[in-house]
Every structure is written in C-alpha cells, then in structure tokens.
Design goal:
44% helix, 247 residues
C-alpha cells in the first residue's frame, strides 16, 4: 500500500499534475478544491489512467475554518496522512478600484486565498501527519520576490510559515518546504489576462526562453515529499527559468 497524499487545488494545473505523479506510483491521493464538478472529473480521469480507485476528492473552501475542519475529518476518517501539498490559491484579486476600501479588499481576498487555505489545511492535518517521515510542501511563487504586492506578499508569508513549520516539526522527523514556480503553461492561473502578448512577456523574462510545465513542478514536489529528501527542510525551491531579481 502506498502513502497517503493530500493535494489542495488538485483539480487542475499543477495540483492535478501533482496528484497524477503520486497516483502513478500507487499512492492514495485526496484532492481538494472549491469546485466539486472539477474535482470529480479529475479523480475519474486519474483513476481511469492508473487502473485503481486511488484518487478521492472532497470540496471545501479552505479559507473557512469550519469547512476546513470538516474536510480534514473526511480525509482522516480512515487513517493518517503522509504528505500535505498546499496548492490552492492564486491571484484572485489582481486589481482594485483605487479606494482604500478597494485596496483593503484586494489584500484580504488574496490573503484568504493563499495564506489561510495553506495554513488552515496544514494545521488541521498536523495531528494526523506521519511522525517521523511526514512531508509538507507549500506552493509559493516568483511573485514572493518581485510582486505584485497583494499577491506576492501572501506568497512571501508562506515562506515564513514554511520556516516556522520546519523549526517546529524538525525534531519530530517532519520536513516542510516550498516550491516557487515562475510562469507555468497549461494552468488556469492567469485566466483572461493570459493573452499571447502577456505570455510572450513572461517567457521573455526567463533565461531559458521557455515556460515551465505542471509536470516539471510536480516532479519537484514529488522529490521534496520523498523519503530521500529527509535532509531537506526549511527551503524554498525556485523554479522559474531564472526570472527573478538578483539573477
């Protein structure tokens, strides 16, 4: 029997690729998100591909404490958890109307979507995480280094949370790390903002002249979650083709 893996934001993009990577190895995967129909379709696709009912799902707004608590109860009803991957979130409020109220709302929405979804799910599952050997991987972003402020600030907050977890859980044999991608194709992240001109600009900022892929990011997550990475903790792995300040 494989390990038990939890992936939030597991219905599309990097989260789906991550769930696929673990399921392909025979691990049992629970994917979470807000959209039940997307999660159901993703689980059906992965189970059909890997020939077993390895992938289950539950929908929840992970910025809400009670809904997160119920999701955690569903996940742990039949056992513990070996790996937690917090991938839910995104730049859900890319702009504001210029008023102080609008700016406050923008920052609050991005904080809820990116920080609370990671922190609440992680804390809810911590009592059930394998010790020793548990793994926590947060999804950050190159935006934590270069902005924009309301979104990038939330990803920078995940870095400090990762460091806190690494210190807190290291003595128990649990590691905590983050992966910070740059521009990654085949995701829903940019929505209507992802015009050909915008994509060309993003790729033009790299040193390699190419976008990242969900599979590439999933491979990095898989490594950090592996038994072989027991000596890696409190780290932020940047995968962005060199598209960051200080290059």
């Amino acid at each position: 029997m494989g390990r038990r893996i939890v992936v939030s934001g597991g219905g599309t993009g990097i989260g789906l690729a991550t769930a696929d990577t673990f399921a392909a190895e025979g691990d049992r995967v629970v994917i979470l998100g807000r959209r039940a129909e997307v999660l159901r379709a993703a689980a059906d696709k992965l189970n059909a591909a890997h020939g077993a009912e390895l992938v289950t799902w539950t929908s929840a707004d992970l910025s809400d404490p009670e809904r997160t608590r119920r999701a955690a109860e569903f996940i742990t009803a039949d056992g513990g958890v070996d790996v937690v991957v917090t991938n839910a979130g995104g730049n859900v409020a890319p702009s504001n109307d210029g008023t102080l109220e609008g700016i406050a709302g923008q920052y609050q929405r991005n904080f809820e979507a990116n920080v609370l979804t990671a922190v609440l799910l992680t804390e809810a599952l911590l009592p059930h995480l394998t010790r020793p050997g548990g793994r926590i991987v947060h999804l950050s972003s190159v935006a934590a280094l270069r902005g924009p402020g309301s979104y990038g600030g939330t990803k920078a907050a995940l870095h400090t949370y990762t460091f806190e977890l690494a210190r807190r859980l290291g003595p128990e044999g649990v590691t905590a790390n983050a992966v910070a991608p740059g521009y990654v194709e085949d995701t829903e992240f940019f929505g209507e903002r992802g015009t050909p001109e915008f994509i060309a600009q993003q790729i033009g900022q790299t040193l390699t002249g190419q976008p990242g892929t969900p599979v590439e990011i999933a491979a990095a997550i898989r490594y950090l979650a592996s038994p072989e990475a027991a000596y890696v903790t409190g780290q932020v792995l940047h995968i962005n083709g060199g598209a960051q300040y200080g290059r």
